[in-house]
Amino acid sequence: MKEHIEAVLFDMGGTLRSTTKRLREVNKQKIHAMIVLLGVDLDEVEFKLLLKKRARAYKNWAKKNLLELNEIELWRRWMLPDWPSDQVSRLALQLSQLWRDATGKHIVFPETQETVLALFRGGYRLGLVSNTTSSVEVPRLLEELGIAGCFDAVILSCVVGIRKPDPSILLMAAGRMGVRPEHCAYIGDQPSRDVAAAREAGFARTVILRDPKSPPDLPQDAALIPDDYIKNLNELLELFPARSKPKGKRPPADSPLYDASLSTMWARNKFSVLSDFFLAAGRLGFPKIELNHQIDSGMLSSVDLGKYSISSVHEPCPADISMETLKARDWMISSLDENCRQQGTAAIKRSIELASTLSVRTVVVHSGQVSLDMVLENKLRHLFHAGLTETAQYQETKRLIMERRLKLSGPCLEAVGKSLKELMDYASRFGVRLGLENRYHYFDIPTQDEMSALLALAEPDRLGFIYDVGHATALDRLGFFPNEMWLKRFGGRIFGAHLHDVIGISDHYAPGLGDVDFRMVAGYLPKDSFRTIEVMSINTPEQIKTGLIKLVDTGCVNLI
């Protein structure tokens, strides 16, 4: 038993996957694609030989100095130093991936996914530390395997600038995971690199995966002999049996607990089954979950929801009919077609029923939109990204959008009012209240004045406001509604808040990655309102942890 081990960290190449040579024809295709990308006429054989020579020189330099360059610096300084710097910088990621694809084919070991998931479910914190010249391959592979969310930290040499056997790269990973080195194990395939780094970093245990067809290559230096050799990754499950689980309903957390929920939005592409998301959320410090509109009945069936605290249900959940389908068919509570409007209310009723079975008090509601034609708004957002907000073209496009919305909004708002009255009557049977969310698009309902009119339909204990900071910030930056005005006008009706950061007008980033004024937001949130961290799957566990710290510092979230 290795009960003192809390975290298991992996190498990538040779450990979680193998690399084989490409077929000559595939190699040729990739080299040709690089030449086409560069827009020149080169001899493929000569170009390939040149790159091989330069790649070998770079590798020798990197190994000698224990340094790693990112893709741009690698291609500017080593691979194509005699080419225009701006062009190489612009194409570096594509060139790097084509070259790597040309020189080797990566094959994931059959047991990789099941072993990683078993360790994760067995209570171990997981990390990955890899020497690599690609910043995109490893994250992409982890997502493809449905295990990206299982790793607390993914440290790539080309991102941090150092490489094994420098022990600082492993210490960096342990630090980011919040685990002491003496409670960590490292799994690799090269004793001179992996055992050396782990031993010097003070890791408790080293394991080397070796080729089962060959005898172990015992290092001459006794200090580089690992604690264990294995022939198959699944042998790790014997070396690291499941850790004992604490008793109680609340999921265990290996970090501080926060008075906040994590939206299942983050689960998309991160986990193979939804139950693994719930485990990860608990370890990040979330005692509660918001079920969002990307979760269907099949996904819900993988979780014993009775073991967890659900703060809110975001319709349409279960999304057996996806939000995209509802929009495409105009099955929304704002529809002017009565049959379509009824389909929209039916979707929300299913969410109300789910909330009732889980003893959840609040269902987050989208109020539909006034137009399915987004051409004008998409044009405005394109102009924003191009930095043209002060131009006459931007102002004219904005004027046309506002004019069109005003012309169309009346009947749609009436349909929403009718739908909400029906839905509130239905929700009252189950003791559920409805929270209207401010939305991301200008053509969405409601505007601030429309929110005022809709909230006037019912008492504050039946109908309230869900403040989404990202949506409010984006529309503010486009020049429509001041963000803070949502809070000033409707702060007293807030049931809950969706907290995430915004870069430009793109939202759902972990707090701290953008420039939202969370301290201002905190001043308006009622003490009894729930706080949901609603971030997309590209955010890492580490970024979410850092975001939680920021939210505590600004007063948006409290430690439990």
Explain this structure to me?
- The protein has 560 residues and is an alpha/beta fold.
- Helix content is 44%, strand content 15%.
- It has helices spanning 24-38, 44-65, 71-79, 85-103, 112-121, 137-144, 157-160, 168-177, 191-201, 236-239, 274-284, 297-300, 323-328, 338-357, 375-385, 392-428, 448-455, 469-478, 483-490, 518-522, 541-554; strands at residues 7-10, 17-20, 105-108, 125-130, 151-156, 184-188, 205-209, 228-230, 261-263, 288-291, 309-314, 362-365, 433-437, 463-468, 494-499, 501-503, 506-509, 530-533.
- The strands form four sheets. Strands 9-10-11-12-13-14-15-18 form an eight-stranded parallel barrel, surrounded by five helices.
- Helix 14 packs across helix 16 and helix 15 (375-385) crosses helix 16 (392-428).
List the helices and strands and how they pair.
Elements lengths: L6 E4 L6 E4 L3 H15 L5 H22 L5 H9 L5 H19 L1 E4 L3 H10 L3 E6 L6 H8 L6 E6 H4 L7 H10 L6 E5 L2 H11 L3 E5 L18 E3 L5 H4 L21 E3 L10 H11 L3 E4 L5 H4 L8 E6 L8 H6 L9 H20 L4 E4 L9 H11 L6 H37 L4 E5 L10 H8 L7 E6 H10 L4 H8 L3 E6 L1 E3 L2 E4 L8 H5 L7 E4 L7 H14 L6
Parallel strand pairs: 1-4, 1-6, 4-5, 6-7, 7-8, 9-10, 9-18, 10-11, 11-12, 12-13, 13-14, 14-15, 15-18
Antiparallel strand pairs: 2-3, 16-17
